[in-house]
Amino acid sequence: MIGVxxxxxxxxxxxxxxxxxxxxxxxxxxxxxxxxxxxxxVPTAVVVFPVYCQNIxxxxxxxxxxxxxxxxxxxxxxxxxxxxxxxxxxxxLSKCRVSAAAIVPAGHTLLHEEVSFDRAALLxxxxxxxxxxxxxxxxxxxxxxxxxxxxxxxxxxxxxxRGNVCHYCGRCEAVCPCGAIxxxxxxxxxxxxxxxxxxxxxxxxxxxxxRLVSLYLKLPRKTAVKVYC
Length: 229
Fold this sequence. Notes:
Blueprint: E1 2-6, H1 12-24, E2 28-30, E3 44-50, H2 58-65, E4 71-78, H3 86-94, E5 97-98, E6 101-105, H4 123-130, H5 150-157, E7 158-162, H6 171-175, E8 181-182, E9 185-186, H7 195-199, E10 205-209, H8 211-216, E11 226-228
Parallel strand pairs: 1-2, 1-3, 3-4, 4-5, 4-6
Antiparallel strand pairs: 6-11, 7-10, 8-9
């Protein structure tokens, strides 16, 4: 039995997870909608998640730590700048054997890009998921600054604000995976997944990138899907 689990802020990782679920013919479960503390016991778990500051989002890290599965297939979705060694991190957190993995560039949230990824490049991953055998993951390069107060750097680099058109509908609060927002006011638990920005019906929540982040977003990008199987 195969289970596909995904976490997504603005839809990029969700699109990749939904594609894999469709190809495998299995339902896709949203990690943020699972009851707190629920265990995962399927034989093979495909976990699709975005990369934030070259790290795994906290809700996904917590999910990986409570897995009880024979095989893990981590799929990291990012904007093409740097994925760090999140695949290794996912394997370490879950303590599961890895049968396949992938790093998928699919557009960047901070650049307001639509979802776009190479579906054909993921088909070998689908075949390997069906016939699991252990693999060794190569260690990718990670920026040494990535682990230096990543949440704080994210809050400094990407400023969030609420406009006067807020209707206090509570939609943002309902979807926040970190409990970081109340009546449009964002606290220090925010990890900048931008889910609140994406669902706000009045477009009252906005963000602005600082100078260093803006310069970072002008660096050359990777466009090729990496599949390890």
